[in-house]
Amino acid sequence: MKPITAVLLGAGSRGNFIYGPFAKKYPNDLVFVAVAEPDSQRREAFGTLHNIATEQTFASWEEALAQEKIADAVIVSTQDRMHFEPAMKALELGYHIILEKPMSTFSDECILLEEAARKHGRLLMVSHVLRYSPFWAGIKDIISEGKIGQITSIQLTENIGYQHMAHSYVRGHWRNNALSSPIILAKSSHDLDLISWLMDQKCKRVSSFGSLMHFREDQAPIGSTSRCTDGCSVERSCPYSAIKIYLETNEPDYARNITNDPTPEHILQALKDGPYGRCVYRCDNDVVDHQIVNMEFENGSVASFTLSGFTRHIARTVQIMGTHGEIKGNMEEGRFQTYLFSAGQSLEHQFDITHDGHGGGDNYFISSFVKEIRLYDRKNEGLSSASASLQSHLIAFAAEKSRLASGMPFELQSVISGT
Ligand SMILES: NC(=O)c1ccc[n+]([C@@H]2O[C@H](COP(=O)([O-])OP(=O)(O)OC[C@H]3O[C@@H](n4cnc5c(N)ncnc54)[C@H](O)[C@@H]3O)[C@@H](O)[C@H]2O)c1
């Protein structure tokens, strides 16, 4: 079978470290024939690694999509505010699309994308990759088999991890609502998507509370300076020290996001000059650092979701309460238990946690996209299609609307009709 050919829009972290490696690992499935990326170092490195002809390397998605269709698919892995336009244009040109979540930072654009995918008869698969991970797929199977009866409640917690919080949501790309999107959309469309998918019900209404309590100037310790490298007198005792996170923790995922060449000298320079060396109490961040969302579904079932930046581990924990049994799990441990009331016993389910990104979800997601294109007949939209993903986005918009209205509940319909 011939490999699926693709154009990559945005050779940043996702493009370079998720989609690129997949194509290298499975060249019979996916081959990149063009790349669009304004950062010349990234563009050239990606072009060289994937043997892309120089005339098919572009400085922007606009240039790449100014020509006729040249491949089967487009992967949109630009930043959150640059999803709608390239995805719309690619659909018009007839490409199948992987679109990074969130679909858009505006509810009306999410709806337009879903309609456009249907109108043009193309796959538009949103990167809600957790659906494809063995852990969540395993939970979904147990629920679908009816083993725990009807779901009455789901509790899901997103433990963001204190260093990850500082990296992405205080100093990094997703720190500011106006520059990217509220954290409930940027980070937790995954979680709201899982809840929607597991519940398999229409969400009726939503309420939410949350705020930015800690990463604010009025919380800055005495003696702290505007950068960790400015001789800050509390740097050694600060858990959010950029020197600790980027130079001492030895966590490549963080360092390679702040410089294309993560040697200690370049990292230190990036901390002195760039956004990632800023004191966490003196950034231009405004997204919340903790939030809860309550959801009510059409059949009366309910879900609650908690996100917090103040956790040791990066982990998702879940409890699903059915009329005949219960499931409790921890994704990062790759383990869940099913307790069936009638049998009076627990079944343990353990998954391999050495998988690639997102508990294996990233690679299974891309494989599934390739398979869907090969079998495409307009009937099957894929597990994480735009229509499947729309509800979780609307829940996120409704949650943010509620949070800003002091927790007042909103019908999901209100974010569609703008009431
Ligand atoms: N599915 C997931 O689990 C998951 C995980 C992380 C990030 N994301 C999403 O993936 C997207 C990309 O995230 P990232 O971490 O790779 O970001 P990134 O900033 O590392 O990469 C984006 C790239 O787009 C490039 N770019 C900017 N303008 C462009 C243009 N006009 N044309 C083409 N490229 C352009 C940037 O230079 C950058 O290299 C975001 O929307 C993010 O929310 C999804």
What does this protein look like?
- By secondary structure, this protein is α/β, with parallel strands linked by helices.
- The protein has three domains: about 5-130, Rossmann fold (3-Layer(aba) Sandwich), CATH 3.40.50.720; about 130-215 and about 285-415, Dihydrodipicolinate Reductase, domain 2; about 215-275, no CATH class.
- The protein is built from 15 helices and 15 strands.
- α1 links the parallel β1 (about 5-10) and β2.
- α5 (about 105-120) packs antiparallel against α14, α9 (about 190-200) packs across α14 and α10 packs antiparallel against α12.
- The longest helix has 19 residues, at about 385-405.
- The model has no long low-confidence stretch (mean pLDDT about 95).
- Nicotinamide-adenine-dinucleotide binds next to α1.
Defining key terms:
419 residues; alpha/beta; Rossmann fold; Dihydrodipicolinate Reductase, domain 2; nine-stranded mixed beta sheet; 15 helices; 15 strands; binds nicotinamide-adenine-dinucleotide
Describe, in short, the structure shown.
By secondary structure, the chain is α/β, with parallel strands linked by helices.
Question: What order do the helices and strands come in, and which of them pair?
Answer:
Blueprint lengths: L3 E6 L3 H13 L4 E7 L3 H10 L7 E2 L2 H4 L8 E4 L7 H10 L2 E4 L7 H14 L3 E3 L7 H11 L6 E9 L2 H9 L12 H4 L2 H11 L3 E9 L30 H7 L3 H4 L8 H10 L16 E8 L4 E7 L6 E8 L2 E6 L4 E6 L4 E6 L10 H14 L11 H19 L5 E2 L1 H5 L2
Parallel strand pairs: 1-2, 1-4, 2-3, 4-5, 5-6, 7-10
Antiparallel strand pairs: 7-11, 8-9, 8-15, 9-10, 11-12, 12-13, 13-14
